Hints:
By secondary structure, this protein is of the alpha+beta class. It contains 4 helices and 15 strands.
Amino acid sequence: MAQRTEGMVLLEGGTFRMGSDDAFAYADDGEGPPHAIELAPFWIDACAVSNADFAAFVDGTGRVTEAERFGWSFVFAGLLPDVFPDTRAVASAPWWRQVFGADWRHPDGPQSSLEGRMDHPVVHVSHDDALAYCAWAGKRLPTEAEWEYAARGGLERRAFPWGDDLEPGGKHRMNVWQGAFPGENTCADGWYGTAPVDAFPPNGYGLHNMTGNVWEWVADWFDAGYYARSPRRAPAGPDGGTHRVMRGGSYLCHESYCRRYRVAARSANTPDSSTGNLGMRCARDG
Length: 286
């Protein structure tokens, strides 16, 4: 039985089936083969780190994020005002725009603020920013195996934290793209960009928004072939690499191009990257 303390949940650990052979998996992501993993007990945040949480960290440490040092970050074009000046787009994903002045305090660009969003997840944080926050909070990033164990909420062989139906009983259980991406979002789930960190019902372990809303950094380096040689007990990922793993999908995920809002789905980004749909959740040893 999970226990709670200070916004975290203690998970008992044990053996679970990690990965998937889902027909919707992307070969380059390395979601398989499914394999048995053993984990020791650990604590994990019930919610993603919020803007309020991150503001307390910055106030206490004076941290300047990498996006602030670089002077820009990536923002989804649909969140920019119609009159926003043209900026460089990502060639393979033109809905991503390089926006100068975008950072955690200005998630949709320099004209935006955190007003009304202090309970939303912090975004525009790099992997190093996430590690710095964790160190300040006396925590750490979860391993990829810990994250998936937590996200499953006690369910095995299921696509989502609540089962296999995207919208069970017609009810929305996470914040993802509704409509035709990227031009039309009906906001049927109630949100266009980010939602509060506890906006949807928790999974079986009492954890909110493990899928959808924002991607979450985890501790591991990324290697698409790692699962085939992963140790059974407490895998911590490859010894090195160029990209760090991120998990959970985001408010931009849609089955037409990114069905990575499943508990087994994985993706990766360079450690210094920051975007308007990438945040974090912390863990610590049990």
